[in-house]
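TICKET: design request
STATUS: open
ATTACHED STRUCTURE:
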């Protein structure tokens, strides 16, 4: 497998949004930004994401053979068996690294991050296996990102504070709206708009945070402005606008994390999340985010 093919299969341009999810889970669980487990978690959950993207192409190869023959598997650049093996291998290594984080560092969180990782692997596999024509697939995709928060948080804390679960629910709502849009991408149109109401939940949460922590106001304004830009693309619906809106909303995950981090008194990590947003947009010019 050529490196260029692997990067394309893994949609690596979106990885900075996974890193900001890890920052958020760890920070809201009460761990320091310099926690030794942070590096392990970044690698582990990056493997979950890239492995999941590999499996997405593997499971979708019959569909891609008809609708997107330029994708790596139908175009003959790599075999589906190889992509399956690498994808599931990455999930297994990701779980192993979570076990290292849980059992190798004090305070020992033991089985908690492992269980969250296994649940994440199951959710990723189920989504990739049954997301076509599944009306609940946006919910499943949202659960995958929610579990990134929980896996990172449970790696550093045995008992999670309420803000972790609230933020996870907010992220779930954002992913429901985003994933519904992604399901329409190959049609280059948007058939219905009601699921996009879910995108309003993080806005409302961000406004509430800004009333309590003024430092979250700037990332909130960035997040709102960027979301409105993506929705404008969907409304205009010129050729290519729906795919552009999808990758824009994916990059917006980092801005949402910035809002949450700033709202919970982690300005340094909030600033890094904004940098991750810019990095995601830059990488998407190099490797497609979808």
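STATUS: resolved
RESOLUTION: sequence designed for all positions
ATTACHED SEQUENCE:
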């Amino acid at each position: 497998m050529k490196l260029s093919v692997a990067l394309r299969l893994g949609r690596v341009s979106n990885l900075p949004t996974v890193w900001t999810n890890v920052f958020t889970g760890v920070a809201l669980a009460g761990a320091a930004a310099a926690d030794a487990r942070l590096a392990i978690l970044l690698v582990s959950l990056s493997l979950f994401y890239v492995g999941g993207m590999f499996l997405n192409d593997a499971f979708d190869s019959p569909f891609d053979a008809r609708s997107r023959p330029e994708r790596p598997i139908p175009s003959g650049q790599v075999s589906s068996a190889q992509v399956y093996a690498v994808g599931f291998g990455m999930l297994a290594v990701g779980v192993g690294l979570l076990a290292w984080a849980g059992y190798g560092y004090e305070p020992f969180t033991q089985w908690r991050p492992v269980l969250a990782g296994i649940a994440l692997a199951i959710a990723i596999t189920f989504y990739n296996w049954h997301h076509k024509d599944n009306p609940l697939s946006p919910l499943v995709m949202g659960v995958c990102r929610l579990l990134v928060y929980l896996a990172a948080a449970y790696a550093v804390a045995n008992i999670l504070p309420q803000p972790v679960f609230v933020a996870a629910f907010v992220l779930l709502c954002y992913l429901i709206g985003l994933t519904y849009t992604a399901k329409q991408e190959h049609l280059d149109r948007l058939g219905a708009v009601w699921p996009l109401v879910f995108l309003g939940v993080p806005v409302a949460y961000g406004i509430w945070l800004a009333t309590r922590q003024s430092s979250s106001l700037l990332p909130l304004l960035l997040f709102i402005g960027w979301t409105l830009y993506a929705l404008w693309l969907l409304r205009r619906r010129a050729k290519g606008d729906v795919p552009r809106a999808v990758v824009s909303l994916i990059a917006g995950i980092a801005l949402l994390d910035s809002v949450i981090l700033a709202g919970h008194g982690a300005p340094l990590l909030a600033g890094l999340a904004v940098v991750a947003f810019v990095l995601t947009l830059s990488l998407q010019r190099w490797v497609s985010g979808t």
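CLOSING REMARK: The chain has a mean pLDDT of 91. The radius of gyration is 18 Å.
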